[in-house]
Amino acid sequence: MRHACGAELAPDALLCDQCGGPVVWSGDRLETGLGALVSSAAEPATSGPAIAEPATSPALVPCTCGRAHPAGGQCMFGGAPARASGASVTLPGGLQVPLSERPLVLGRLSDDERVGVALDDDFVSRRHALVRFDGTVCWIADAGSTHGTWIDGRRVTDEESLPPGTTTIMLGTRVAVIVSAP
């Protein structure tokens, strides 16, 4: 099997050795983490570890190298991945991204390409909002977006804390993300 970048992958790979991109095995298919499926009908279904549940992307944690890696993984670029915090953002399509003290950019040009792909909408700014978890509380701030960041019909103007549990946040008028806080 080959990753979207063209590199040959080991059957149990979590990250591509060449580009560092995440790899998700979904039964007999391989998902590169950017939504592109890489597989060959000629390859047997046993070419990678099977997942019994429906395919979902692994939880990613931000890293000091500027990329995001699967939770519990190691950075091939010398960075230090954050530990999963228990707080996360669920994006359209079901991608769940763990939060850390390092703010996660929600927008079309997020540092995490998968976030940018999930939020590709005309009403979402390139850098729409910032969300972070300080170990106790989740925080959200609008990043100067055109169409605003909204909670319960109220526009977020300054950084504000989110209550424990789940909070639905609207980016513009058409895209909802869910922040889950312990």
State the main characteristics.
1 helix; mainly beta; six-stranded antiparallel beta sheet; four-stranded antiparallel beta sheet; single chain; 182 residues
Can you put this structure into words, describing what you see?
With 182 residues, the chain is mostly beta strands. 3% of the residues lie in helices and 30% in strands. Strand 14 and strand 15 form a beta hairpin. It has 1 helix and 15 strands.
Could you give a short account of the major beta sheet? Answer: 6 strands, antiparallel
Q: Write down the secondary-structure element order.
A: EEEEEEEEHEEEEEEE
Low-confidence sequence ranges: 26-57
Termini separation comes to 38 Å
Radius of gyration: 17 Å
**How many helical elements?**
1
Number of separate strands? 15
User: Taking all residues together, what is the mean pLDDT?
Assistant: 75
Strand-pairing-aware structural class: mainly beta
As a percent range, the share of helical residues equals under 10%
From the spread of the alpha carbons, the general shape counts as globular
The side-by-side strand order for the widest beta sheet comes to 7-6-15-14-11-12
Strand content: 25-35%
In a nutshell, what does this entry contain?
With 182 residues, the chain is mainly beta. The protein has 1 helix and 15 strands, in the order E-E-E-E-E-E-E-E-H-E-E-E-E-E-E-E.
